Amino acid sequence: xxxxxxxxxxxxxxxxxxxxxxxxxxxxxxxxxxxxxxxxxxxxxxxxxxxxxxxxxxxxxxxxxxxxxxxxxxxxxxxxxxxxxxxxxxxxxxxxxxxxxxxxxxxxxxxxxxxxxxxxxxxxxxxxxxxxxxxxxxxxxxxxxxxxxxxxxxxxxxxxxxxxxxxxxxxxxxxxxxxxxxxxxxxxxxxxxxxxxxxxxxxxxxxxxxxxxxxxxxxxxxxxxxxxxxxxxxxxxxxxxxxxxxxxxxxxxxxxxxxxxxxxxxxxxxxxxxxxxxxxxxxxxxxxxxxxxxxxxxxxxxxxxxxxxxxxxxxxxxxxxxxxxxxxxxxxxxxxxxxxxxxxxxxxxxxxxxxxxxxxxxxxxxxxxxxxxxxxxxxxxxxxxxxxxxxxxxxxxxxxxxxxxxxxxxxxxxxxxxxxxxxxxxxxxxxxxxxxxxxxxxxxxxxxxxxxxxxxxxxxxxxxxxxxxxxxxxxxxxxxxxxxxxxx
Length: 488
Fold this sequence. Notes:
Blueprint: H1 7-14, H2 17-22, E1 28-30, E2 33-36, E3 48-51, E4 56-59, E5 65-66, H3 68-76, H4 80-90, H5 103-132, H6 134-145, H7 150-155, E6 159-161, H8 167-172, H9 178-183, E7 187-189, E8 196-198, E9 203-209, E10 215-222, E11 230-232, H10 248-258, E12 261-264, H11 267-275, E13 281-283, H12 291-298, E14 303-306, H13 312-327, E15 331-334, H14 347-354, H15 356-364, H16 369-377, H17 385-400, H18 405-419, H19 423-430, H20 452-463, E16 479-480, E17 485-486
Parallel strand pairs: 12-13, 12-14, 14-15
Antiparallel strand pairs: 1-2, 2-3, 3-4, 4-5, 6-9, 7-8, 9-10, 10-11, 16-17
């Protein structure tokens, strides 16, 4: 990949693979080489070796191997050009000078730097409000009721935005121009486009950082009955909600180490799981995943445990996320927490009420996503043909999104077994046929050349069990799989 005479080749020649790998793996000298526990699979006895002479690595356990660029690409889940930059920076090699930026580009870069600085100052302001004001005392009492001790509040940078409406504005007004204050998303204008005021008022604040750990936005929870309950920063030049995941900056090392990530909905859920000693957790902040967020996760792992809330919104978000994750060839499990008393449990409530050990137990037992979906399908009426059809129509879109044909076939068999469906019929439906008749024939009409629609009409007149849409001429009817019959 590194062409002769290229900058990449120059970096590779100067790089010390032992030094680079040693930043990720604890290496021990064994003769001419170095060895350690492989970072790409779980093992107890070291089978991972690095050769300083050949400048390569190889694992005898999983077969991974290559040069310094291969190692960095696998660890950082990045492309070759980014791996070259990473290795160059680690080895202190200056990158080639880029073309001189235009005045517009320099202005945009300066603006982004100022916005990052504003958010750093806002974070310090919110923390000070929480720690040293009467309003902040009430906010601290609320956080303590939620089980957050002082160390946790400090660890996650939780603060408080006062109710005044212009406290942060007065703090910033002498430092930054009005246009930049609005573009930061920390302040808003009234409906007439005139007066500026604080966007976050009487709310507990949670700093949102980008992957490198710089604060670029805030999420805020109302302390009283104000609506909306949760309010996030708007889109800004430094913040796009679909490009970030809450807590990823702290979680990425744990994700690489354990090779899976727990996906939750909100800030408090992520904090609760992290407090339980599970660092590899991120939050999508109340929405299902976006394509860009999935690509971001894919840089660190291809294994996800979805642990959204059990309410209707959470179940819908789980199902939308499953579709996108499967298209990206992720291995997905779903952790559906049982109720706590008469309440549908989210991770925060469950861990507070039932403890981290019980959560860890359920996490280890979290089923593959198909088992979760089958359990959902079982709530449908499977005693009728229509009910079975609804269950199949619910399940198959997820199975069809699996890129791997062998795995797709395996899950089709599993669905047929667990829902007691005719497997050949299910496989035919999986291959794309538009209609399946699930009603087993009980009269002689099926021995003649009547259509499935005629069968529906005949059975409906006798048993009154068919939906009117089954009789509609617009409903696609190709074949009755149970009688191997085609419409003429």
